[in-house]
Amino acid sequence: MLVSKIFGVLSRFTKNIVATLKLALIQVLVLFVCVIMPAQALFVSPPKDPMPLIKEIFPEQTRISDKQASKEGGSLVWTIYSQGAKNEEILGYAFETNDLAKIPAYSGEPVNMLVAIDPEGTYLAAKVLEHHEPIILAGIPESKLHAFTDQYSGLNVSDRLKVGGNQTEGIVHIDGLSGATVTVMVMNVGIVKSATIVARELGITSASQEAIQPMGTIYPEFFEKSDWTTLTGDGSIRKLYLNRKTVDDAFVGTEAEHVEEASAEQKQDMFAEVYFAQLNIPTIGRNLLGDSEYDYVMSSLKQGEHALILMGSGYSFKGSGYVRGAIFDRIQIQQNNDAFAFRDLDHSRVPDIYIDGAPDFKERSIFIIREHHAFNPASDWQLELLVRRQTGPLASIFTSFKAQYHTLDKYLDRPALIMPEPELTLAQQVWQEKEAEVIILFILLAIVMMSLFFQDILVRHPTFMHNFRHLFLIITVVFIGWSWGGQLSVVNVFTFLQAFMSDFSWDLFLLDPVIFILWGAAAVSMILWGRAVYCGWLCPFGALQELMNIFARYIKIPQFELPWAVHERLWAIKYLILLALFALSMESLSLAETFAEVEPFKTTFLLKFDREWPFVLYASALLLINIFNRKFFCRYLCPLGAALSTSNSIRLFSWLRRRPECGQPCKTCAKECEIQAIDPNGVINMRECHYCLDCQVTYFNEEKCPPLKKLARKKARFVEENKEREIPAINVG
Ligand code: SF4
Ligand code: SF4
User: Fold this and answer.
1) Bridge partners of 307?
2) Confidence (pTM)
3) Distance from the CA of 319 to the center of ligand 1, in angstroms?
4) For ligand 2, atom 6, which residue shows the shortest CA distance?
């Protein structure tokens, strides 16, 4: 009678609690639909139209071409023009990173950006057109992304850029974005890679130019007496030679094709012949000018300035139309990405040359390269000769011809080339960047492994074990969770499954080393010991709950435990949530990600509670409940814990010790297990256990474990009895 009354009360109590919890679950779902679904709209960045942005970047443009490839198979680029007085000039180029370097970012989708460069390869702007990075809009204002891309303006395609890190010579550092490291690193690679492709295709840069030649120094004392034939023969003096056919061919297909065209007999005639050399090399300068003229030229040069000599016949390299103060418009020097022309103040005539064997020249000039051009005598350079043909009273068309100059090694100290570091993949860059975290994390994992291997020794020292474990949990929360954002999520499982079912590549997973290593550790520990090790030691939210609850118990906050029958049934909720999320992920990963906010992880660790209030309220409520009921969220709601515990059937080891008396009659461990993972029959449910080792401390404690106590008593009695039976020894001496 009494038993059935008690059972009746219990069953009503159970029903009420189940009904209350069902209601709570429905409320949670309603909260998700009402509050988080509208918030979902925030996660989608509406794509921007690039055209208004291009017009904003190039306010003086008069024409924007269609987006088209400059050559067959080339990249899609907009070319932006402005109408000058005579001709249309190219102001720059614009392109979308998704057309050239589509790299998945944190969300698995690429960040599409509009990048604009000028004809010299200088970045004019980089603007985000579209992204799906949830973390950005959820916690980090969009303006920070724009501030990140604004850093590219003024940099050059040939600059070696790196996001974050310490200052390094030869590398331009760009500020990263805390909390969105992977996103901005992917953006950097997208911008640099696409700009490099375009710049190479358009001939703005070449792969070889990207090696850095440190500044060379001409040997001021090195001199060899020489003649014209020797100096032109060994390349000390170079020649740009054009016959009329070469020039005519260069104008074919232009309006100037037949202007001043040579007849068939004239085709091989000389059009222009220009000898050129670096005059401040003593062997060249002294032999050409004689000692006194050379010394005079050298004394007129300032620090960092260089003198070139040009000697020509045929087509005038100076031109007839140049006026005082103007620029010589027929020649310029190119070195790496720089091109520099000369003004009249940079020029002086050479009255005569004294070297033996030199031909006569119509023009002889010295041109000074000023210091601000940072001319490097150790780097090759080109003399460019512009040939212009008049096509109307004011209109003309020009073409240009180049000849290379390489300073001989014997004339200067040429430091070795600094070769560009081999390009690291994005994943390699991220791992290099997070080297410290990776090393510390491996050390922490080694410590956990060692603790488990030697758990039987550890649990015999309860005070040390508890202190050690609490310290480890603090590290898990502070470093793995808050500092490194190393909180696994059930979304990772879905992403992995989806990747597995499509084109699997490790690249996406390698982008976050901490998450990657933690998943590796979770996988290994699941096979060896089940989900328990991750949940009990490495999960930041689990650790945070445990630490809060330990403190709550320490200050004597009363705890409540649900009756076993209720508790056991409520376990099912987390599996139902997991199933629902899995079904959603089949439909849409981003939808599943939205509903996976049932995990309060993003709010707690990635965004550190700096978020919209419903998310903060939800995470805080779970932590508050945990103060009264240890790891409430883990026990009943966590879909990640549910996913991990599905591996229980493949678990290899069972190192948590039990005695035949566990459960029947002894209930000590079952009562002590603070997440109720021990069945009333004494069996540890490894799907629920968090490997805190508390039951193992009891197992080895002769003062707590009743069977052990009994054994100890028996032993003591046996020793006593044996003492009594002992026959006293008699000294027969
Ligand atoms: S159940 Fe979830 S929150 Fe709890 S420890 Fe495991 S993974 Fe972390
Ligand atoms: S007390 Fe024992 S059964 Fe309970 S969680 Fe800790 S290790 Fe697992």
Assistant:
1) 368
2) 0.62
3) 80
4) 692
